[in-house]
Design brief:
CATH class of the domain at 1-72: Mainly Alpha
CATH architecture of the domain at 1-72: Alpha Horseshoe
Strand content: under 5%
InterPro entries: TPR-like_helical_dom_sf (IPR011990)
Order of helices and strands: HHHHHHHHHHHH
CATH topology of the domain at 1-72: Serine Threonine Protein Phosphatase 5, Tetratricopeptide repeat
Distance between the termini: 23 Å
CATH superfamily of the domain at 1-72: Tetratricopeptide repeat domain
Shape: globular
Number of strands: 0
Structural class: mainly alpha
Radius of gyration: 18 Å
Length: about 210
C-alpha cells in the first residue's frame, strides 16, 4: 500500500487515478495533496503540472512546470511536458523550437516526436509534420506507421495538404486491426474530421 505521508507516493497514486482510471477530480486532488506534503519534491511538482494540463488548466500548469524545470533544467521528461503545455496555450512556435532542440540533443529519444508533429501541424508545416511522425516510427521500428506516413507524403505530392489526412487514414485502415498505435489512429480520425471515432479510439487507450 502506498504511504499516504510520502509526496511521491501520492503523486504516483494521483497519476494512476487521473490517467489510468480517468477519475480527474480525485486524481487532481491527490496531486495537490502530494505538493502539500512536500512542496519541494520535483516529481510531485512535475506530475501536478501534468494533472493540471490533463484538465485543461494550462496557465496554472505552465506555472507549475516552470518551477519543476528550474529545479531540474536538464530533465527531458519535464521539457516534453512543458512543450505539451505550450501547445495547449497555443504557443506553437515555442513548443516546436523546444522539441526540436531536445530532439537534436537526444536524437534517439522517442518522446518529443509525437508532440513535435502536433506543433508542426499547428503551424501548417506539413512536411516537417510528416517527418516528425516518420522519425518516431523509425525509432519504434514500426513499419506500419511508416507505411501510413508514406501514403501521406504521396498525397501531399499529388494533392497538397488537403489530401494528407484522408490518405493516411485510408492507409491505416488497410492494415490489420491493432497494428497501428492507438493514439496515432485517434489522431488520424480527428484529422479527417471524425471526432466521434477519435474519441472512441482514445477510450480504448489504457494510459495517457
Amino acid at each position: 500500500m502506498l504511504n499516504p505521508n510520502l509526496a511521491q507516493a501520492q503523486a504516483v497514486l494521483g497519476d494512476i487515478t487521473m490517467f489510468w482510471d480517468r477519475n480527474y477530480d480525485t486524481g487532481l486532488g491527490l496531486s495537490e495533496r502530494a505538493l502539500a506534503i512536500d512542496p519541494d519534491d520535483t516529481l510531485a511538482r512535475h506530475w501536478h503540472a501534468a494533472a493540471l494540463m490533463g484538465v485543461g488548466r494550462y496557465e496554472k500548469a505552465a506555472a507549475e512546470i516552470a518551477v519543476a524545470r528550474e529545479r531540474e533544467p536538464m530533465s527531458r521528461s519535464i521539457i516534453v511536458t512543458r512543450a505539451m503545455i505550450l501547445l495547449g496555450l497555443g504557443h506553437h512556435e515555442e513548443a516546436r523550437d523546444t522539441l526540436r532542440q531536445l530532439a537534436a540533443n537526444e536524437p534517439g529519444y522517442r518522446s518529443p516526436y509525437r508532440f513535435l508533429a502536433f506543433a508542426e501541424l499547428a503551424r501548417g508545416d506539413h512536411l516537417p509534420y510528416l517527418q516528425a511522425w516518420e522519425t518516431r516510427f523509425t525509432l519504434r521500428d514500426d513499419d506500419n506507421g511508416r507505411a501510413v506516413i508514406r501514403a501521406g507524403r504521396l498525397a501531399y505530392e499529388g494533392l497538397g495538404a488537403d489530401g494528407i489526412a484522408e490518405a493516411m487514414l485510408a492507409a491505416a485502415r488497410e492494415l490489420p486491426e491493432g497494428t497501428i498505435e492507438p493514439y496515432f489512429l485517434a489522431h488520424l480520425l480527428a484529422l479527417a474530421g471524425d471526432g466521434e471515432g477519435a474519441a472512441a479510439q482514445l477510450g480504448l487507450i489504457e494510459t495517457r
